[in-house]
């Protein structure tokens, strides 16, 4: 029996360890403390992402006690990165978020950051002077789900032009951002819809007229185009982390409004954005960087309703419910920062 005791004790210890391991697997892992958490923030390098760049460069993330890893994403991959867990927070065009959110994109919008971004441009000699003049024309866009085409469709529908599949009175043609002004110059299309700074650069280099501008054309100039968002699980399990991120982004957005020349210079010097800093600063000054939670919420409802009317959002989608479910209220996040 004495020879069996060590083996028996070892067997008991092994069984006990296994039992504890199984029990532990059924428990939720403890959330990391705020000081230990490294938040993965995705960005694509666009000009209007200034709040992301400044929150990092000017210390607004650090001021909130938040450790951040900025992750550069290829254009058009932000949703995949969020879904795959590669990033937990980001900056997005509000109009482009609506349809994916209706299909289950796992994010929560936390605040609006600014207005502006989208333009529709035409040659100065085109004879196109109003949105109504685009009836029967070909419009170049960077993609069929992008913010520029959404802005164009909303403005055209408001002008009485059919933009749904059942009543399409214009033709949308996809070109890359680099190809859009060239296609316009060659006559392959009659107008282009693009984001800034692509649109502003094209207008300057190809001598184009700005027909519509979401930064100045009513009523779009009062509607938020860009917002901050977090992964839904972060908002649920670590609301303090999500709140720190949101407050930092709000502070950084207000900083962009107050220091556009400095921001543009930092963006170019730190290689967040390409181009000329002085020109980029002029574009930044056309955006209204007054971060607002309610501003984004209201713009979401307006835009979603219009997208549903033009067939870019399912007819069966409950817009008020989608609007409510797409946002989250976070502790200590102010509605507006100036």
TrEMBL record:
Keyword Ribosomal protein: no
Lineage: superkingdom: Bacteria
Record-linked Pfam families: NMT1 (PF09084)
Domain Solute-binding protein family 3/N-terminal span(s) in chain numbering: 38-276
Signal peptide coordinates: 1-18
Similarity field: Belongs to the bacterial solute-binding protein SsuA/TauA family.
Protein name: Putative ABC transporter, substrate-binding protein
The organism of origin for this protein: Acetonema longum DSM 6540
């Amino acid at each position: 029996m004495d020879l069996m005791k060590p083996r028996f004790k070892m067997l008991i210890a092994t069984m006990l360890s296994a039992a504890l391991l199984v029990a532990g697997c059924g428990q939720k892992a403890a959330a990391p403390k705020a000081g230990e958490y490294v938040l993965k923030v995705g960005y694509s390098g666009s000009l209007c992402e200034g709040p992301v760049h400044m929150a990092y460069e000017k210390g607004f993330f650090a001021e909130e006690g938040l450790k951040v890893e900025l992750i550069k994403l290829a254009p058009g991959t932000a949703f995949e990165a969020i879904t795959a867990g590669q990033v937990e927070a980001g900056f997005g065009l509000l109009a482009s978020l609506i349809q994916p959110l209706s299909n289950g994109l796992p994010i929560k919008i936390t605040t609006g950051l600014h207005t502006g971004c989208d333009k529709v441009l035409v040659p100065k000699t085109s004879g196109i002077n109003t949105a109504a003049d685009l009836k029967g024309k070909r419009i170049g866009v960077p993609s069929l789900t992008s913010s520029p085409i959404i802005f164009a469709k909303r403005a055209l529908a408001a002008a009485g032009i059919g933009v749904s599949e059942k009543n399409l009175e214009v033709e949308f043609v996809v070109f890359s951002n680099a190809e859009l002004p060239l296609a316009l110059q060659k006559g392959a299309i009659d107008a282009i819809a693009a984001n800034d700074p692509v649109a502003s650069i094209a207008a300057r280099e190809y001598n184009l007229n700005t027909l519509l501008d979401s930064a100045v054309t009513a009523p779009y100039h009062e509607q938020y185009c860009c917002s901050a968002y977090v992964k839904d699980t972060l908002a649920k399990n670590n609301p303090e982390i999500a709140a720190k991120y949101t407050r930092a982004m709000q502070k950084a957005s207000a900083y962009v409004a107050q220091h556009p020349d400095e921001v543009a210079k930092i963006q170019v010097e730190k290689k967040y954005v390409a181009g000329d800093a002085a020109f980029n600063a002029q574009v930044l000054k056309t955006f209204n960087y007054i971060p607002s939670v309610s501003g984004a919420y209201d713009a979401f409802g307006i835009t979603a309703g219009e997208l549903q009317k033009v067939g870019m959002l399912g007819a069966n989608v409950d817009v008020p419910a989608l609007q409510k479910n797409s946002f989250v209220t976070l502790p200590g996040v102010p509605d507006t920062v100036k």
